[in-house]
Amino acid sequence: MILLGLTFIEAGLLAWLFIALVDLGSLLWLEIVLGILIGLIVSVAHRIFILFLMAIVNNHSKPQRKLNMFYFRCVCSAFMILTRVHYKVEGLENFDYSRSYLFIGNHKSNEDFMYTSVPLRKLKLGFLAKMEVEDSFFGKRYIKQIDGVLLNRSNDKEGAKSIINVINNIKKGTSMMIFPEGIRTDRSTNKMLEGHAGSYKVALKAKCPIVPVTLINTHKIMKNAPFRKTKVKVIFHKPIEYDEYKDLNTIEIEEKVRNIINEPIKE
Predict the structure, then answer these.
(1) pTM for the full model?
(2) Which domain holds residue 134?
(3) At how many degrees (to 10) do helices 2-21 and 65-82 cross?
(4) In which band, very low, low, confident or very high, does the pLDDT at 51 lie, cut at 50, 70 and 90?
């Protein structure tokens, strides 16, 4: 919200400056329209340039987690502005920010992590992501510095190490976000498909609460952007405490979580 507010303030000042300097005679309405349009374009371009510059500088400095997470969430917010995402968040009152959790969500977009990281800005949060994320510009600079764990899906031994790192992060007080569907997901629907049951071994080993997360309409964003806005809803359900699932196996836990995530989806 701060980033959005600063963008509009800067755009307004630039629009006013344009109107003050340019004289189109009786076409005042055209001055105003052009001023607003140019102000918005320049302001957004300026924000993006600053974020890229921060990323480059950050890549050559010592890791500073809070600063890195701030930059990361600024990038996420800028992306949502540019792709015209209008999103509503529910359920933030369902958990205690002093605890660590395992967040489990349905996976319908490569950018799903953005729509969970921004509303959870008060929480120390990391992600389990596929190894290919490190090939991207921002992934290379931020994923490990914001407690992200990369998963090598082609190497079982390395994959097991990644899961252990996720468990250790949770035990140390960092909540982790996992999308168990992985590449199995059907991106033509909001419904969560059956995911990797092994993901729930993390919860059993860490003995932490599980927070099911429902993401609605994230699979439509890239189809709509930039000409149409997309209404996205993110629902954080009540945590499932360890005592509620400790006697279940991973397949039973997966089914329980999936049913909670799919319950509010009406299709």
Answers:
(1) 0.74
(2) 86-262
(3) 60
(4) low
